[in-house]
Task: inverse folding
Protein backbone atom coordinates (compact mmCIF):
# COMPACT_ATOMS: atom_id res chain seq x y z
CA UNK A 1 0.00 0.00 0.00
CA UNK A 2 1.31 3.45 -0.93
CA UNK A 3 0.48 6.69 0.82
CA UNK A 4 1.80 9.97 -0.63
CA UNK A 5 4.44 8.10 -2.57
CA UNK A 6 5.69 5.98 0.32
CA UNK A 7 5.23 2.23 0.18
CA UNK A 8 4.28 1.79 3.83
CA UNK A 9 4.30 -1.99 3.71
CA UNK A 10 7.63 -2.31 1.92
CA UNK A 11 9.27 0.28 4.15
CA UNK A 12 8.68 -1.73 7.32
CA UNK A 13 11.73 -3.40 8.80
CA UNK A 14 12.80 -5.74 11.55
CA UNK A 15 12.61 -2.86 14.00
CA UNK A 16 14.62 -4.10 16.96
CA UNK A 17 17.28 -6.11 15.16
CA UNK A 18 20.55 -5.33 16.94
CA UNK A 19 22.89 -6.56 14.21
CA UNK A 20 24.48 -3.57 12.49
CA UNK A 21 24.78 -4.42 8.82
CA UNK A 22 27.33 -2.85 6.50
CA UNK A 23 24.52 -0.65 5.18
CA UNK A 24 23.69 0.62 8.67
CA UNK A 25 27.32 1.14 9.66
CA UNK A 26 27.72 3.24 6.53
CA UNK A 27 24.54 5.19 7.23
CA UNK A 28 25.37 6.19 10.81
CA UNK A 29 28.37 8.48 10.00
CA UNK A 30 26.31 10.14 7.26
CA UNK A 31 23.44 10.72 9.72
CA UNK A 32 25.87 12.12 12.30
CA UNK A 33 27.26 14.49 9.66
CA UNK A 34 23.77 15.70 8.73
CA UNK A 35 22.95 16.29 12.40
CA UNK A 36 26.20 18.15 12.99
CA UNK A 37 25.92 20.45 9.97
CA UNK A 38 22.21 21.16 10.53
CA UNK A 39 22.73 22.03 14.21
CA UNK A 40 25.77 24.19 13.47
CA UNK A 41 23.77 25.95 10.74
CA UNK A 42 20.90 26.68 13.14
CA UNK A 43 23.23 27.92 15.86
CA UNK A 44 25.27 29.99 13.42
CA UNK A 45 22.17 31.78 12.18
CA UNK A 46 20.74 31.95 15.71
CA UNK A 47 17.53 30.28 14.57
CA UNK A 48 14.85 29.67 17.22
CA UNK A 49 15.22 25.90 16.79
CA UNK A 50 17.96 23.27 16.78
CA UNK A 51 17.61 21.12 13.63
CA UNK A 52 20.18 18.73 15.09
CA UNK A 53 18.05 15.60 14.80
CA UNK A 54 17.49 15.54 11.02
CA UNK A 55 20.08 12.82 10.49
CA UNK A 56 18.66 10.87 13.42
CA UNK A 57 15.19 10.91 11.82
CA UNK A 58 16.54 9.71 8.48
CA UNK A 59 18.65 6.96 10.06
CA UNK A 60 15.66 5.72 12.06
CA UNK A 61 13.43 5.78 8.99
CA UNK A 62 15.91 3.93 6.81
CA UNK A 63 17.48 1.47 9.24
CA UNK A 64 15.39 1.44 12.42
CA UNK A 65 15.47 2.93 15.92
CA UNK A 66 18.80 1.39 16.88
CA UNK A 67 20.57 3.18 14.03
CA UNK A 68 18.78 6.42 14.83
CA UNK A 69 19.57 6.23 18.53
CA UNK A 70 23.26 5.55 17.86
CA UNK A 71 23.43 8.40 15.33
CA UNK A 72 21.87 10.86 17.76
CA UNK A 73 24.09 9.78 20.63
CA UNK A 74 27.32 10.01 18.64
CA UNK A 75 26.41 13.41 17.25
CA UNK A 76 25.75 14.85 20.69
CA UNK A 77 29.10 13.61 21.95
CA UNK A 78 31.06 14.91 18.94
CA UNK A 79 29.20 18.22 18.88
CA UNK A 80 29.75 18.62 22.60
CA UNK A 81 33.48 17.99 22.24
CA UNK A 82 33.94 20.37 19.32
CA UNK A 83 31.42 23.21 19.32
CA UNK A 84 29.08 23.22 22.30
CA UNK A 85 29.79 21.28 25.52
CA UNK A 86 26.14 21.63 26.55
CA UNK A 87 25.18 19.27 23.71
CA UNK A 88 26.72 16.26 25.46
CA UNK A 89 24.22 16.51 28.31
CA UNK A 90 21.36 15.84 25.91
CA UNK A 91 22.70 12.58 24.49
CA UNK A 92 19.92 10.68 26.26
CA UNK A 93 17.32 12.91 24.59
CA UNK A 94 18.78 12.11 21.18
CA UNK A 95 18.68 8.39 21.92
CA UNK A 96 14.99 8.66 22.82
CA UNK A 97 14.23 10.66 19.67
CA UNK A 98 15.87 7.99 17.50
CA UNK A 99 13.84 5.26 19.17
CA UNK A 100 10.51 7.09 18.95
CA UNK A 101 11.02 8.07 15.30
CA UNK A 102 11.91 4.49 14.39
CA UNK A 103 8.88 3.06 16.18
CA UNK A 104 6.47 5.60 14.69
CA UNK A 105 7.86 5.15 11.20
CA UNK A 106 7.65 1.39 11.45
CA UNK A 107 3.98 1.68 12.44
CA UNK A 108 3.13 3.87 9.45
CA UNK A 109 3.08 7.26 11.14
CA UNK A 110 5.32 8.88 8.53
CA UNK A 111 3.12 7.79 5.63
CA UNK A 112 1.31 11.07 4.96
CA UNK A 113 1.41 14.75 5.85
CA UNK A 114 -1.23 14.59 8.61
CA UNK A 115 0.39 11.64 10.35
CA UNK A 116 3.79 13.30 10.20
CA UNK A 117 2.39 16.22 12.19
CA UNK A 118 0.99 13.93 14.89
CA UNK A 119 4.31 12.06 14.99
CA UNK A 120 6.19 15.32 15.42
CA UNK A 121 4.02 16.27 18.41
CA UNK A 122 4.69 12.90 20.06
CA UNK A 123 8.43 13.26 19.41
CA UNK A 124 8.39 16.80 20.80
CA UNK A 125 6.59 15.59 23.92
CA UNK A 126 9.18 12.83 24.40
CA UNK A 127 12.02 15.29 23.96
CA UNK A 128 10.51 17.80 26.38
CA UNK A 129 9.83 15.21 29.08
CA UNK A 130 13.44 14.00 29.00
CA UNK A 131 15.09 17.39 28.51
CA UNK A 132 13.19 19.32 31.19
CA UNK A 133 14.93 17.68 34.18
CA UNK A 134 18.29 18.24 32.45
CA UNK A 135 17.42 21.90 31.90
CA UNK A 136 16.48 22.33 35.56
CA UNK A 137 19.51 20.48 36.90
CA UNK A 138 22.17 22.05 34.67
CA UNK A 139 20.78 25.40 33.45
CA UNK A 140 18.25 26.53 36.02
CA UNK A 141 15.36 25.48 33.77
CA UNK A 142 16.32 27.39 30.64
CA UNK A 143 16.93 26.06 27.13
CA UNK A 144 19.41 28.56 25.72
CA UNK A 145 16.99 29.78 23.03
CA UNK A 146 16.29 33.47 23.80
CA UNK A 147 12.57 33.69 23.06
CA UNK A 148 11.85 30.40 24.81
CA UNK A 149 13.82 31.56 27.82
CA UNK A 150 11.90 34.84 27.76
CA UNK A 151 8.72 32.79 28.15
CA UNK A 152 10.37 30.90 31.01
CA UNK A 153 11.39 34.15 32.72
CA UNK A 154 7.87 35.54 32.36
CA UNK A 155 6.35 32.44 33.94
CA UNK A 156 8.87 32.45 36.79
CA UNK A 157 8.16 36.15 37.29
CA UNK A 158 4.52 35.22 37.73
CA UNK A 159 5.44 32.67 40.41
CA UNK A 160 4.76 29.61 38.26
CA UNK A 161 6.58 26.46 39.38
CA UNK A 162 10.03 26.12 37.82
CA UNK A 163 9.26 22.63 36.49
CA UNK A 164 6.12 23.81 34.72
CA UNK A 165 7.90 26.89 33.37
CA UNK A 166 10.87 24.84 32.18
CA UNK A 167 8.68 22.20 30.53
CA UNK A 168 6.65 24.90 28.76
CA UNK A 169 9.84 26.59 27.53
CA UNK A 170 11.20 23.28 26.23
CA UNK A 171 7.96 21.94 24.78
CA UNK A 172 7.10 25.10 22.83
CA UNK A 173 10.55 25.05 21.25
CA UNK A 174 10.45 21.31 20.68
CA UNK A 175 7.12 21.49 18.86
CA UNK A 176 8.51 23.94 16.33
CA UNK A 177 11.83 22.13 15.95
CA UNK A 178 10.44 18.61 15.71
CA UNK A 179 7.66 19.58 13.30
CA UNK A 180 10.16 21.29 10.96
CA UNK A 181 12.60 18.38 11.15
CA UNK A 182 9.85 15.78 10.73
CA UNK A 183 8.62 17.36 7.51
CA UNK A 184 12.17 17.83 6.21
CA UNK A 185 12.89 14.15 6.86
CA UNK A 186 9.55 13.13 5.34
CA UNK A 187 10.15 15.02 2.09
CA UNK A 188 13.80 13.94 1.86
CA UNK A 189 12.78 10.30 2.36
CA UNK A 190 10.18 10.59 -0.40
CA UNK A 191 12.87 11.75 -2.82
CA UNK A 192 15.23 8.86 -2.10
CA UNK A 193 15.52 6.21 -4.82
CA UNK A 194 13.47 3.12 -4.03
CA UNK A 195 16.60 1.07 -4.65
CA UNK A 196 18.33 2.82 -1.75
CA UNK A 197 15.36 2.28 0.57
CA UNK A 198 15.22 -1.39 -0.39
CA UNK A 199 18.96 -1.70 0.21
CA UNK A 200 18.59 -0.76 3.86
CA UNK A 201 15.39 -2.75 4.27
CA UNK A 202 16.94 -5.89 2.78
CA UNK A 203 19.95 -5.59 5.07
CA UNK A 204 17.94 -5.51 8.30
Result:
Amino acid sequence: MKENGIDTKASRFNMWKLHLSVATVTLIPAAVGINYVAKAFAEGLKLPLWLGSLGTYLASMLAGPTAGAISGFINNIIYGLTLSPVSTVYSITSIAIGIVVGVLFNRGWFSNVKRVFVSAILIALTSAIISTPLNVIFWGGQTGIPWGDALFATMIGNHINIWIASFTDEFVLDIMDKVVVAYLAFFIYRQLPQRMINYFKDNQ
